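Dear colleagues,

As part of the handover before I leave the project, I'm documenting each prediction I ran so the next person doesn't have to rerun anything. This entry is a single chain, and its sequence is reproduced below.
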Amino acid sequence: MRSRFLVPLIYFIYCLPAVPLSAMGILYFVHLPKFHSSSLGVALATISGSLLLSRSWDAITDPAIGYLSDRIRKPFLRRPVWVLGGALSCSLVFAWVSSASAMKLFGVESGEYFVLSALFFLFYTIILIPYESWALEIFTEVEKRTRIIMLREGATLCGTLVAGALPVALSRYFQEKEEIVAFSGLLISVFLLLSAALVVFIVPYPRALEETNLPRGPIRAVKDAFSLKVFRILLFAFCLTTIAAQIPAALILFFVEDVLGVSDSTPFVLQYFIGAGIGFPFWLYAARRVNKADLWIIGVLLNTIFFFFVIYLPAGATIWYSICVVGSGLGLGGILAIPTAIQADIIEFDCEQSKERREGSFVGLWAIVRKLSAAIGVAGVLYLLAKAGYEPEETASVTPAMQTLIRYLYCLLPCLLNFGALFFIFRLKEELKLVKGYSSDDS
């Protein structure tokens, strides 16, 4: 009876920090740059340069934090202390950069701004990598491990909604933009700190390790990870689907306003996540009964087929666009959560083969691919639009040829990338048969 209630409680508590972590990422990239530029007078070149340099630094810090946390034998120091310390540091910096008065106190010149940006992403990595690695050590059963990882990805999805809804809700009580942003940052920071504390005090710690179970070097850990053919194929497929997912996110404003002729894209974004919410219970249920590679294929096909028809929609076809958006969202759970669950199984297979517990090193590499893929997707399509002569707020630049280009970039390019990913996923399915615990019938 105790186990019956304890396991769901662990699921719930562990997934809580994923909500504020996701909301922080969205707010930092979407809301804060505009706020810092318009309210504090920070140059756009300073903002973009700081973001670029900080994210480039992630290529070093992500695997480094993963390896360092892997090297610790004592249960509390292995993951929990990183999560708690990272949550405290990250919360303080995020609340600081969300406050106009605090930013003015520290300074908003390029040097000071870069320091704050670098500190935020460093502390974000310090909590994120050990937090995600911890999920692989809570349960030994494949079914429970898959479930907690998928629930965490679902919580990440909820965090995206929180990031969009919280400023709107606060605007009913505060008139000034500075107050809305400051309270949003404060509430999310407090949420992260409290949820991280709950995780540390309630979720089971990783087991104590012997010296022989510790990874023997960061470079060796990276080389061993890439030497696994099944992991390399997984990374290629995940990279393509991540780029394909980021392109529509970057271009939805362009497509809705300049092609459909609708001024507000918010309802369509909400519909996409409603579709994802409707479909998520299916992915959670099916992951226990269906081969995960097959589920990933189904998710990619569902997402792609619905989205492909968007390219043919004329201006003003909002109802048909809504249908396509909701249908495409149904497949998001398969694209978002299933690859991470497969990654967890491969990491467990590696640990059994190598006798080394190096979950953090794998998760660090996974995080790099996720971040770089997102950056490539967003930066690539925006660069192509700029080279084609697109000018924001300049209706004269939106010619029929430009509308066609936006259609192709927004609809066709993601579909082609997803179909390319299917090639690797089918190969992954064959390779997974060699991984212990996988067969044609296993999940």
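The domain at 1-209 is CATH 1.20.1250.20 (Growth Hormone; Chain: A;). Residues 301 and 331 are 8 Å apart (CA to CA).

All the best with the project,
I.
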